Each structure stands twice: as C-alpha cells, then as structure tokens.
Amino acid sequence: MKRTIGVALGNSGRHIGVVRYNREGARESASFEYGAEWLEAPDRFRIDPALPLVAGPQFHKRREEEGSIFPGAIADTEPDGWAAKIIVRDHGKRRALAKAAGEAPPALAGAVDFLLEVDDFSRVGALRFSDESGIFRRPREDGARAAPPLIELEHLLSSSRSVEMNTETEADLAYLRGARHDRQRARRSSMPSSTTSDSRPSPKVRMFRRAGRERATTPNLLV
After folding, report:
1. For a surface tag, which of 23, 48, 66, 105 has the fewest beta carbons within 10 Å of its beta carbon?
2. Sign, CA torsion 220/175/203/195
3. What is the pLDDT of residue 190?
4. Phi, psi of 70 (to 5 degrees)
5. How high is the pLDDT of residue 185?
6. CB within 8 Å of 126: residues ≥ 6 apart
7. CB-based contact 206:195 (threshold 8 Å)
8. Which residues, listed in sequence order, are joined to residue 15 by a DSSP beta bridge?
9. What is the chain written as a DSSP string?
C-alpha cells in the first residue's frame, strides 16, 4: 500500500511538503519531501533538524525496533500508547456497526492510519496532515467538539477510567476521541493525558493517574 500525505503549517494550511508512505506486508517505510514553493520562500525553515532544506525525498531510519518510521517533528504528533488504545477500540466499534449495516470499512493498516486518526484541532504542534483528497485529518465530525470542555473534567476522568478498566462504552470512546495525547509527555509519565478546552481557543493538557494506584486520582495541569 502506498499513500501520499500532505504536510501543512498552522491555521492557514500553508503547504510545506509531502510524506510518502509505503507498506509491503509487515514492513513500513516513509520519506518526507519539501515542496518547491516552500524551499523558495524567504521565510522557509526546517521542520526538523534532521530534515535539511534540500529538494528530493529524505528517508528516516528507525533508531529502535519499535521507533517511529517518521522524522521527529512528525513522529511527535503520532498518538501515544494510551491514545492508540482509544483509536483501536473506537475504530473497532465503528467497524462493527458499519458491518452490521452491510458496509465493509477498512481496518487500521499501519503507522500512517494512526497518524491520520489524531484530531486535527488538538494535534500536538503546528503541523497538519491532509489525505489524498486534500482533507485535513482527522476532521471534526458535524456537531462534534474537538476536545472536552474544561467543566467536564469529571466526565473525562470517568471515561478515561472506564478504558483503563476495560469497561468502556461506545459513548466513552466517542467522548475521548476529541482528546489530544502528547507523545513526548507520555514518554515521561505513565499517566493517561488529555486535552481540555475552555472559552479560550488554546487547548490545555490534563494528566490523570492510572487506575489501581494508591495515591488519589487528581487532574494535573501542565503548563
């Protein structure tokens, strides 16, 4: 399977380049290529120290077996283990409903699918990714919010705890799917994390202690 994913910057959606993804059996690879317009722009910059401002595809070599196939700046926007768990369970329930309706939705095939399943609004950093149709992924569904409101922390904690205890409902997964999960923070902590929002547009990250810990479960604000 081969895919070409657009890489853009910020709210303006300014085109930076493309990620070319390839999967053959269990083997995956990806390259990044700056667009000609970006390379000619006076305000151009590297999106990652390992990606110099040169034309042509640039390949990333995994540093470890379970490492990302994407360069650092792109890998940082991938879902962490907690977010991937929610994505897998939510996708599984959606597939079951679609099959019951006579449809045949595709399964999650690899790293690029998980990259594109992260919410576009609350994705970490300024990079955005569009599919072959030019749609930024993952788009917000009609009438849905992008992140749980600040006043719903109790609801957020309850749904997160349900996933931890393997008792989540379809409603729990739908509620959590708007959350951002920071890969870098996840490496420093074993606590589930999630984005919340208030009346201001900037998201706020909350982290929660895992179920079964002796210490009280208390939301923490990361600034």
Report:
1. 66
2. positive
3. 38
4. -100, 155
5. 38
6. 9, 10
7. yes
8. 8
9. -EEEEEEEETTTTEEEEEEEEEEETTEEEEEEEE-HHHHH-TT---SSTTS-S-SS-EE---SSTTS-SS-HHHHTTS--HHHHHHHHHHHHHHHHHHHHTT--PPPP-SHHHHHHTS-TTT-SSSEEEE-TTS-EESPPPTT--SS-BGGGHHHHHHHHHHHHTT---HHHHHHHTT----HHHHHH--S-EEEEB-SSSS-EEEE-PPTT-SS----EEE-
Are the beta carbons of 162 and 86 closer than 8 angstroms?
Answer: no
Asked if 22 and 32 touch (Cβ cutoff 8 Å), the reply is no
Amino acid letter, 89: R
**Euclidean distance between CA atoms 208 and 1, whole angstroms:** 37
Q: Which of 27, 47, 29, 7 is nearest to 136 (CA)?
A: 7
CA–CA distance, 151 with 92 (Å, rounded to integer): 29
What's the rounded Cα separation, in Å, for the pair 126 and 121? 10
**Which residue pairs, CB below 8 angstroms and at least 24 apart, start in 53-56?**
none
d(CA 209, CA 70): 29
Distance CA 78, CA 17 (A): 18
